[in-house]
Specification:
The chain is of the alpha/beta class and 525 residues long. 55% of the residues lie in helices and 7% in strands.
Length: 525
């Protein structure tokens, strides 16, 4: 979402790169470029002006730090200003000492309010062990009540509604129902409009008066840009907003709303919607968001996401198998499935430092995952455990079973050999001994003809998946895999890096025929 803003800010910082010191002239040039980037990204003009002034105050007259590039000092000042404008860092929901806690969700139609209501219920149930009750009070939009019921059924969360009653009465009865059922959290899904009007404001204000919510959250659509800021101002004038939820952050909007909302309304952004699935709602962290805007990535968020999806036992077993050198196609399949749990590949790559502006330049095709899995599942378990047995006849059978040509299985096997070679190089660096795996290798001898580790799963494990820690492979995890060219690897298979030529391609056949011609010429001589 922030690609345009990140690209423009990157250009502004590039103009300062290589300067020996920050002078008033080059600072002013950098600030003008930052202001232009913010305005182009649909940041509120007053917010853009105040943010630039904040950066100017912190940079002008600042002494150059020894060993720190002046452009990095400027980037740090912009990062700190962005965090302050989108903060505070510790903003959170207020839970009632005497349950149930009542949370009112308001917003315009089309902002994703009903879906966000279900997402928030799931997040608070899973992360805070709450027992939520959803109250369907949107009687204006057709099928809004049914939509919430379907979402509640999918999550196993009860939904309260009484037909024929006014929205305020439905909400009041819903709070009483939650207390009777022993539910300690009530989420009120109120009605929206296509635009701000007096009827909408009166209805929401009446619901707030009848239920006395502990938190009043406004759901804003990030795709609407400045309209999201204006609607937030109008709601804030009639309701005492305690927080904001920014939805559709995975879209292609310019991102100005995220920077402007807190500064204009005074209410912090508490959660962000990052996708269409019910688990795609995450707490908002200003420092991480500022890092993503500036192209610094969000490794902390990626690690947290990996820890949620991949168990520590599974990661350890995968890492041991990698270092012990017993990597098979079965493990490669497990690795691909492990990656799929982290979400769309573009989303994962965008969270890596330095990859934000490159994601659009890399042809990452998530559908290729399906084609790869089809190739793996077309093999027999014996073939996945013993890839060397895949001669041409077996390859043709696997390709037919997956509905692909032989070149696809050739490319897969080439990538597998490249990854296995990389693991041998890692072993030469002594990573196995560093993690106490040399003794395990000796102990495993005799368990099987190949000395395989008797552990499920496979792949890289958390450390090398994310390219962090002392256990990371050379050139750093996923980012390194993507650009290894002929070596292939997971990044290359998914479209990253330079595509390697498949075996049996036209270029290979041409080079072979040329060699034959040269041999015939030599014989004639």
């Amino acid at each position: 979402m922030f690609e345009t803003l990140s690209e423009r800010l990157g250009s502004a910082f590039a103009a300062l790169r290589g300067k020996r010191e920050l002078s008033e002239q080059n600072i002013e040039e950098g600030l003008q470029a930052v202001r232009a980037a913010l305005l182009e990204a649909d940041v509120h003009f007053q917010v853009a002006r105040d943010l630039v002034e904040r950066v100017r105050t912190s940079v002008v007259g600042q002494q150059a730090l020894k060993g720190v590039d002046p452009s990095q000092q400027f980037v740090h000042a912009v990062h700190r200003a962005l965090v302050e404008f989108m903060g505070p860092e510790d903003a959170r929901l207020v839970f009632a000492k005497t349950p149930p806690t009542v949370i009112l969700l308001a917003g315009l139609q089309g902002s994703g309010k009903t879906t966000t209501c279900a997402k928030l219920a799931k997040l608070l149930r899973d992360k805070h062990q709450k027992r939520p009750l959803l109250v369907a009070a949107d009687i204006k939009r057709p099928a809004a009540v049914e939509q919430l019921r379907v979402l509640g059924t999918r999550l196993g969360i009860p939904v309260f509604h009484r037909p024929g009653l006014a929205p305020a009465e439905v909400c009041a009865q819903g709070v009483r129902e939650a207390a009777a059922l022993g539910r300690d959290l009530v989420l009120l899904d109120t009605a929206g409009r296509l635009h701000i009007d007096e009827e909408l404001m009166q209805e929401v204000a009446e619901i707030a008066a009848r239920t006395s919510p502990h938190d009043t959250l406004l759901v804003c659509d990030a795709m609407t840009g400045q309209d999201a800021v204006r609607s937030a101002q109008a709601f804030h004038a009639h309701l005492k907003l305690s927080g904001l939820i920014l939805t559709k952050l995975d879209g292609d909007a310019r991102g100005g709303a995220a920077v402007s909302l807190k500064a204009v309304t005074g209410a912090p952004i508490l959660f962000i919607g990052t996708g269409e699935k019910l688990e795609d709602l995450a707490p908002f962290h200003p420092e991480r968001m500022a890092g993503r805007i500036l192209g610094l990535g969000d490794v902390v968020g990626l690690v947290e996401q990996a820890q949620e999806q991949i168990s520590e036992t599974e990661a350890q077993a995968a890492y041991e198998k990698m270092v012990l050198g017993s990597f098979t196609l079965e493990d490669m399949l497990a690795q691909i499935r492990m990656f799929r749990r982290l979400g769309p590949m573009k989303k994962v790559l965008g969270m890596l430092p330095g990859m934000g502006g490159l994601v659009d330049q890399i042809d990452v095709d998530d559908k290729k995952m399906n084609r790869l899995e089809a190739l793996f599942t077309s093999m027999t378990p014996f073939e996945r455990l013993h890839p060397d047995c895949l001669e041409m006849g077996r390859r043709r059978r696997v390709a037919r079973g997956a509905g692909q040509d032989v070149a696809a299985i050739n490319e897969l096997l080439k990538s597998y050999k490249g990854m296995k070679q990389m693991m041998k190089e890692m072993n030469k660096l002594g990573l196995g001994a560093r993690f106490g795996l040399k003794e395990k290798r000796e102990a495993l001898k005799g368990l099987s003809p190949d000395g395989d580790l008797a552990a499920p799963g496979g792949g890289f494990g958390l450390e090398s998946l994310l390219g962090g820690g002392s256990a990371s492979p050379p050139e750093g995890g996923l980012a390194g895999l993507g650009g290894r060219g002929g070596m292939g690897g997971l990044g290359g298979m998914l479209g990253g890096g330079r595509p390697s030529r498949p075996m049996g391609s036209s270029a290979t056949r041409q080079s072979g025929s040329k060699r034959k011609k040269d041999k015939r010429k030599k014989k004639r001589r």
